[in-house]
Amino acid sequence: MELKHIDIARLSVSPVNMRGGKKAPDLTNILPSVRARGILVPLIVRQNGSPDTYEIVAGKRRYHAARTIAQENGTIDPLPCAVMEAGDDAAALEASLIENTARLDPDEMTRHETFTRLVREGRSVEDISLTFGLTVLQVKRTLALGNLMPRIRNLYRADRIDAVTVRHLTLATKAQQREWLTLLDSESDHAPTGQNVRAWLLGGATISTTVALFDPATYTGEIVADLFGEDSYFSCPSDFWAAQMVAVEERAEAYREAGWSEVVVMERGDYFQTWEHERCQKKKGGRVYVAISHRGEVTFQEGYVTTKEARRREKGEALTKPVRPEISAPIQNYVDLHRHAAVRASLLSQPAMALRLMLAHAIAGSPLWRVDVEKQRANTDVTAESVEASASEAIFDARRRDVLALLDFDPETPTVVDGYAGDHGLPGLFAHLLSLPDEAVLSILSVVMGETLAAGSATVELLGALLKVDMAAVWQADDALLDSIRDKEVIGCIVAEVAGDAVASANAGESVKVQRQIVRDCLAGANGRSRVNGWVPRWMAFPPSTYTERGGVGSVERWNEIASLVDADNSAGEDADQPMAQAA
Question: Considering the domain boundaries, does residue 362 fall inside one?
Answer without folding.
Answer: yes
